[in-house]
Amino acid sequence: VLLTTIMMFGQYVAMGIVEEKQNRVVEVILAKIRTTSLLIGKVLGIGALGLLQVSGLGIAVLIGVSILPEDVIEIPDLTSIGASAVFWLVFWFVLGYLLYSFLYATLGATISRQEDLQSVAFIPALLLMPGYFLVTIGISGGASSDFVRWASMLPIWSPIIMPFRINLGDVAAWEVGVSVALTLIVIAAFVLVGARVYRGAALRTGAKVSLREAWSSAD
Predict the structure, then answer these.
(1) Reduced 3-state DSSP string for the chain
(2) Close Cβ partners of 133 (under 8 Å, ≥ 6 residues apart)
(3) Higher model confidence: residue 15 or residue 136?
(4) Is the CB of residue 63 less than 8 Å from the CB of residue 126?
(5) How far is CA 161 from CA 42, 62, 124, 147, 167, in A?
(6) In whole angstroms, how far apart are CA 169 and each of 79, 92, 96, 176?
(7) Judging by beta carbons within 10 Å of its beta carbon (0-12, 13-18, 19+), is residue 10 exposed, middle or buried?
(8) Residue 110 has what pLDDT?
(9) Is the pLDDT assigned to residue 76 strictly greater than 70?
(10) Is pLDDT larger for residue 78 or for residue 98?
(11) What is the pLDDT of residues 116-164, one digit of tens each?
(12) Cα 61 from Cα 59, distance rounded (Å)
């Protein structure tokens, strides 16, 4: 769920940025507000929509299993999931979405056509997928293995691995604190870098702009 939703709504951010470049709306917007404000507003707006859709899906599932006769499907015991598991799922979705959405936004600013989106969207996916595979390692080999434990504190994988470890009850409080702190630091760094790249590339259409070129053009 985390892997899919983070990638899906992160790509929505990149698509929105590319669309604004295509129709030249970004030129009007940047004349009125700062690049950082525009970038943060776009990420938070689409993130709120993503959280609403995920919540709607969860409510639909709850309603569905509550009204179906027991002889139709084997109804799972949803109460066994627990409020704690739901809380950590939402918490890490928010952090993971913010982290990767600003990365998607940065990369999306360097292109001007929706057709080119996949050429940059695969980069965040490559960063996320090892976290997913490490969770499968944790399931088979134990979430307390040193490799999985340290990997869960790396910001690029924390949103996928850490909620898994937390809900198994095999994680120390300081490990959660370190992973949250490092993730917030990386998010702040992505905001600063993304805003500068966005400022240097948002008004440039046509061929793809390299990150180095966009960074230099921001001056």
Answers:
(1) CHHHHHHHHHHHHHHHHHHHHHCCHHHHHHCCCCHHHHHHHHHHHHHHHHHHHHHHHHHHHHHHHHHCCCCCCCCCCHHHCCHHHHHHHHHHHHHHHHHHHHHHHHHHCCCCCHHHHHHHHHHHHHHHHHHHHHHHHHHHHCCCCHHHHHHCCCCCCHHHHHHHHHHHCCCCHHHHHHHHHHHHHHHHHHHHHHHHHHHHHCCCCCCCCCHHHHHHHCC
(2) none
(3) 15
(4) no
(5) 27, 25, 16, 11, 10
(6) 18, 16, 21, 11
(7) buried
(8) 85
(9) no
(10) 98
(11) 788 888 888 888 888 888 887 766 665 457 788 888 899 999 998 898 8
(12) 5
The amino acid at 116: D
Q: Residue written as tokens 């959405």?
A: 101
Instruction: Give the other-Cβ count within 10 Å of 39's Cβ.
Output: 26
Q: How many CB atoms lie within 10 A of CB 209?
A: 20
pLDDT of residue 188: 93
Which amino acid, one-letter code, is at 153?
Answer: M
Could you give the CA distance from residue 167 to residue 4 in angstroms, rounded to a whole number? 19
Is the pTM of the predicted complex or chain greater than 0.85? no
Tell which residue, 212, 202, 38, 6, has the closest CA to residue 104: 6
